[in-house]
Amino acid sequence: MEAERKSLALDLRIDTSPMPRLLRALTVITALAFAGTLALGLRVAGTDIQQGEIQRIFYIHMPSFFGAFTAFGLTVIGGVIYLARKNEAWDRIALAGVEVGLAFSLINLLTGSIWARPIWNTWWTWDPRLTSAAIMCLTYAAYLMLRAGIDDPGKRRAFMSVYGILAFVTVLITLFIIRIVPETIHPVIVGASPQNAQGGFEATSGVVIALLPSLLLWLTLLPITLIWHRVRLEARIEALNRLKLQALSE
Amino acid sequence: MSDERALIEAENLSKAYGGMPVLRGLCFQVRRGEFVALLGANGSGKSTLLRLLSGLSKPTAGAVRVGGWEMPGEAMAVRAQIGLVAHQPLLYENLTARENLHFFGKLYGIEREERERRTVDLLHSVGLRRRADSLVRTFSRGMKQRLSIARASLHQPDVLLLDEPYSGLDQASIERLDEMLAAGLGAGRTIIMSTHQLERVPRSAGRALVLSRGRISFDDAIGNRDMSEIYRSASA
Amino acid sequence: MKTPFINCAAAIISKDLRAEFRARELVSVMALFALLSILVFSFALELDRQAREEAVSGVLWVTLIFASLLGFNRSMAQERDQGNLDALLLAPVSRAAIFVGKLLGNFIFTLIVGLAMLPLMTALYGLALLDGWIILTTALGTFGFATIGTLLATMTVQTRAREALLPIALLPIALPFLLTAVRATKSLLSGAPAAEWQGSLGMLAAITVIYLVLSLLLYEYVLEE
Known about the structure:
The complex is a heterotrimer of chains A (250), B (236) and C (225). Chain A is built from eight helices and no strands. Chain A is mainly α and 250 residues long. Chain A has one domain. The two termini of chain A are 12 Å apart. Chain B folds into two domains: 119 residues, Rossmann fold; 66 residues, no CATH class. Chain B has seven helices and ten strands. The two termini of chain B are 28 Å apart. Chain C has 225 residues and is mainly α. Chain C has one domain. Helices cover 82% and strands 0% of the residues of chain C. Chain C contains eight helices and no strands. The chains are: A mainly alpha (250), B alpha/beta (236), C mainly alpha (225).
């Protein structure tokens, strides 16, 4: 019986091992770094002369987009390697990347919206960049719906790897939309702002001190730590489902 | 262990769907020119086994070799040697019988003249010559099944796999199918046919392979044995 | 051993054209839908002469993408209904050849509908839609739709919810095509300087190439089990 399970690649054990030491260290470091960047953004950086306190939201707003970029990028990598090797672990990374990336891009939209209320005098406007960011969110929401609609696990993994790779084009478009549709009102802080941009501010040394650590944290530690936790959770969910099926088939 | 004459070899062949095992480590060989009746209750894994042998799905573990080619790595070479008659007819409803055969002939890379000759011959032998230019959507279940067999034999495969070919056929069609299978066998073709109806196993079938809950529970020559006796000993 | 790429793709295209010529299940449904959609938009948006120039390119492309959704679903359903996808997979042909065959069939059907809409909308709205560049934009845009539509319909047709999932999967991915095609058409209609619509058209072509390459590479994975 045991040999047969092995031959069917049926691993019925649920991984109950404690968190790997590296993950534990990463979690602590990430939490501390997050608190640190908040302190930098809220205390150390000076108040913007024109916009006032609301400008501080930028230290989350822009980094959260790049956090989503990393997470969705990991979805592409997970998808490509899954298709090449058919190892489920990579599909779990792809799924975790979508969920974490979607959460980050919702934070990105929400913080942008809160900022836009006093500065642009509206919660939302159909600006090209806002529109493409919304499209990006919808694409990954579609990923999750599509995933839930495919019963066969092998097909689900293969199809979603393909979709995760295709969906990344919308991330790139959001990033480069200013080159495609130049009349956006969304400001650019690093580099030249578009002509019509409203609500830009200068990247003074105070801004850079608060922004850079936050950007680095959201680009690397935050998505990687969250995705790792989510991957471990997914592995347990899958093991549990296998046990259920096994119990049903006996 | 490996038989030189084995055309199909299954080694520890296993398939699971999402952790639900359907086939559990099957080992068997089929020699060239054999006619194997694949028996078993509904859900015993017959269709899954035929899909694995035809290369339509990949094994979870183990290997299949057809004519020395290993799947799934050399699936392209295996495909050209296999014809499958599945549950569904695998035909285009909005094309005529002749057009269907021509289309599949093109996919198998059969030259035009040869394709036309074989199409005419096959339509004749499955008794559809007079309906050759009617749309398949106007066909009865039995006619579709016959055309499906013609489709599967078009590229003259070494191996013919049939999944429950008798379902929905009337007595005349059943007899015609048995004749066709016997003729194919005479031409050196290897046949594996699944069915859950014991009384349907044709006389030309020399060997029975019974699947039960994803395992082989009987594999031997039929000889003069009674089918129900085989079945009983398999389930015992 | 393997059937040549061109022969296989050509066989699939001619099969699809022949079946369509017989049954007229695709083009007629798509064309009727497009006609209704144009009328619905005209009433709902109360398109007067001023509003038209702004809105017409949007109406054209929104109509085209919904019409093509109908077509792609139907075209793949023909492969699924009798299990024909299995029959294609059983043949010794490359998966990319199956993709190209289905893609070109879908493209031809969508293009026919798109080209039929241009003179109709010209007559209804009094705008010069029968322009060489607009026709080229229509061809490029519908080719882009057909590329991702063929890939995604092959996926969704194998799922439980089938037809219902294609719009959800396709629309967000198709938006870059929609965005650039609408902009190119609008600039062409308003007689904007060449640099403006050439930029959009170039983007449309670039996105089409990106998705075409991705689809060719990825198609085999949506057919495996």
